[in-house]
């Protein structure tokens, strides 16, 4: 298994920027990109320090050892599949029909969203991870290996080698991992499912509307969720 030394981030917003922060703090080199071009990432790169630089999406795909795709799901089809061929790509996206447009195969439940991403990035090794935690909680809950309050993040992939690479990356970023199985097994991390966002915050107050839930999550403190807690929740999740 190759250890990640240079992490590529495609999509450098809330979640991509947070992964970049954890990676740079952990001593990885980080290459960031977005849709508007590297010149728009100057402030973020300065903030991240000397291990970070910005590049085009294609250069990021070509130069990094491992790539995190932290873009809206609707942008997956615009990513350079050729430059990403043969690479391990962490799919940190979520499907929200109101944001991404309706995708029939996902609405019917025929495909998980990560299997959909794998179809679009056919020649890449897609690993589902980093999509199920609110970005502020991801930043707050990172802990060194062995810390008693270290949290775990779920991981799913069809390629075992790529999965191991990403489990090692999560460890470097400050997290244990819980193996969900293949991309087809990744439903429990999708929006509205047992492992999406809620494990890492206090119980959601009852009776909130959809918008109030979003507002509540934005101010909610982070709560550690160790591997045994994630496995417990997984056992209660619908298949
Ligand atoms: N926010 C969270 O807490 C969170 C947590 C887990 C997973 N997620 C998922 O992660 C994804 C990103 O969410 P976010 O909240 O980080 O969104 P965001 O803050 O809006 O950032 C999206 C990023 O994607 C880039 N992007 C959009 N289209 C692109 C394209 N065609 N090529 C390259 N880059 C492109 C944007 O670049 P420009 O600004 O230049 O357009 C921006 O840097 C979503 O699928 C979301 O569901 C979010």
Automatic annotation (TrEMBL):
It comes from Streptomyces clavuligerus. Keywords: Oxidoreductase, Plasmid. This is NADP oxidoreductase coenzyme F420-dependent. Residues 7-95 form the Pyrroline-5-carboxylate reductase catalytic N-terminal domain. InterPro entries: NAD(P)-bd_dom_sf, P5C_Rdtase_cat_N, STEAP_metalloreductase. GO terms for molecular function: oxidoreductase activity.
